[in-house]
Amino acid sequence: MFFSLLLQLVVVAVIGVAVWVWKDGFFAQALFYGGLVAVANSGMLVLRWHRGLKDYHCDGQRHLKSFHRSMLERFFVVGVLLAVGFGFLASAPHVMLLGFVVGQLVWALALMLGRRLF
User: What are phi and psi of 110, to 5 degrees?
Assistant: First the structure.
């Protein structure tokens, strides 16, 4: 999972630099911010997964409660970060959402690649 998170961050950074060269810094900043929101979402998921390795239990209700709490935490963090990007940063909203979507797609592809390699 850490490999997937690192790969996601590297790909988002490379795409951000490519957009900076291709367009300009304004679009690159918006795309990179959206990508970093996706990385924050994945990072919270990895953190919860890593914490779950140490706190092992066999209680179904407790697992379900943990899954639900993790989902709500990530939902609200992503919502707040995107709202900050839309409101306070005055970035290009469509480019920022594109960066978020690209970051999420890279996360899924990195997970598939990580499972094939390791």
Answer: -65, -35
Burial label, 34 (beta-carbon count in 10 A; 0-12, 13-18, 19+): buried
pTM for the whole structure = 0.89
Going from the C-alpha of 70 to that of each of 20, 55, 79, the distances in angstroms are 34, 15, 14
For residues 38 and 95, give the distance between their C-alpha atoms in angstroms, rounded to a whole number: 14
* Rounded distance between C-alpha atoms, residue 11 and residue 73, angstroms: 25
Whose tokens are 């920022």? That residue is: 96
For 42-77, how does the pLDDT look when each residue is reduced to its tens digit (9 = 90+)? 999 999 888 888 877 788 888 889 889 999 999 999
Q: Which helix (H) or strand (E) holds 58?
A: none
Check: CB of residue 85 under 8 Å from CB of residue 33.
Answer: yes
Cβ–Cβ under 8 Å, residues 86 and 96: yes
With a CB cutoff of 8 Å and minimum separation 6, the contacts of 92 are 26, 27, 30
Write down the mean pLDDT value for the chain: 90
